[in-house]
Amino acid sequence: MLDALLAKEIESGEAGPYDSHPSLKERLAALSQLRESDSVAPPAADDPRAITLIEDVPRAEAAIVASMLKSGVPDPAPIDWEDVPSRVLTLGWLRNVQPALPGLDGLTPMSFPEIAMRLNSDADALVRQLGVSRGTDPEMARAHAEAILGAALALVLDEHRQKSGEIHLTAPPGKPVVYRIVSGDVKTLIEPFGVLDALKTGTIEPAVWLETCQAGGIATDDLGTYCRQASQLRDLVEAHAGREPHAGS
Fold first, then answer.
1. Which residues constitute the domain of residue 165?
2. What is the pLDDT of residue 145?
3. pTM of the shown model
4. I need a surface site. Which of 13, 78, 129, 163 has the fewest CB within 10 A?
């Protein structure tokens, strides 16, 4: 059946007015004109992006987002991509840590080496402490517990970022979340979701991690306390705005 459909497409297929590519028949015909020695020239440096074909990008984007919302849901407020880490990712981190707040109480960034050491001998220690359901996949539960701890650390760093001009957050699409601490000529990078694994594998030495925490002023910050404060502040901001943000183009 698939062979018949393919044969039909090759023989008589036509491109529709909204197709992004020519028909299969047309593409094969174009390829047949190429010689082995022919090379395809790279796009010109000034070749415009495809999105320039759309006259009103913000309007089109708003229409697409609106089509995905349930009836009665307020329109989300558009934001720039540069603001996505601080305004969108933090919402996910807050939701992630919420069920585990009691288990986060008493934990600090300075205690991460101890947690890593404990996990190397008891892989489920953090799962139990944070109250993560083991379900039917222990590995998934362990990964979720470590993600919660990473989110809690990210929220601590983000609270400091909002109060200090020395801490900066970057998280380009497909790249890890990174907080950059700048103090004079010294720059320190923290990947909150990679710290625990780095300590478990020895990529980061405990002494180096302690120095990093002290440089960021986060060494003794209680994760549970900071996550609660961040949650309360976010609730106030969202209640005032009445809308959740979505990323703009």
1. 80-241
2. 97
3. 0.71
4. 163
